[in-house]
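Appendix C: a fully annotated inverse folding record. The material below is reproduced so that readers can follow the format used throughout the book. The structure is listed first as tokens, followed by the designed sequence.
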């Protein structure tokens, strides 16, 4: 178990440093990632959304911190998972020859990278939540962070897909736009974004 954990962490580090090479190595059959590597990538995304989500509840009680941490993860997981079949199906219909596993890995590496970006954004949200504890301002900070992470994820996904299929002229970055649209709806529905104090 300890060896599997070390291997998972090492592979996650490689995926975050060089996501293109990580995905290409799998797609070309140079390596065969074991189940704990896939689980570690997923764990990075979950850890990032839980910890950042907890900072979204700093203006409330301890229960708000826990609730927002779990809600953020659930909303992000649903937003990333719901359009995933459409990514593979529509990408294949548009001429892609990527197997399902490579398509899923590209998406998983992107979400793992997004989780790391959210962890890196925790000090920003923490600082502004404490320095300017006004819900409208904190909402603006959170929206800015999510927009920045979204742009970074689009860039990572675009680079990975271009390396996986260098002969294709376009990449399916529309998938992340769908993720963003679904995620926005879920975040609002779960009470993570509260616009009542803005006006």
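Designed amino acids, in order:
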């Amino acid at each position: 178990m300890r060896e599997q954990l070390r291997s998972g962490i090492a592979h996650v580090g490689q995926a975050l440093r060089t996501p293109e090479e990580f995905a290409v190595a799998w797609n070309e059959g140079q390596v065969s990632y074991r189940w704990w590597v896939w689980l570690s990538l997923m764990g990075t995304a979950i850890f990032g959304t839980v910890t950042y989500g907890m900072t979204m509840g700093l203006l409330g009680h301890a229960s708000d911190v826990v609730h927002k941490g779990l809600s953020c993860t659930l909303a992000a997981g649903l937003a990333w998972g719901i359009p995933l079949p459409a990514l593979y199906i529509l990408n294949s219909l548009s001429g892609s020859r990527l197997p399902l596993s490579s398509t899923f890995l590209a998406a998983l590496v992107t979400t793992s990278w997004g989780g790391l970006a959210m962890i890196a954004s925790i000090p920003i949200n923490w600082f502004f939540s404490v320095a300017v504890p006004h819900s409208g301002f904190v909402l603006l900070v959170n929206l800015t962070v999510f927009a920045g992470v979204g742009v970074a994820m689009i860039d990572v996904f675009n680079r990975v897909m271009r390396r996986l299929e260098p002969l294709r002229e376009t990449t399916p970055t529309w998938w992340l736009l769908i993720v963003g649209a679904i995620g926005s709806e879920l975040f609002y529905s779960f009470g993570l974004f509260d616009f009542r104090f803005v006006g």
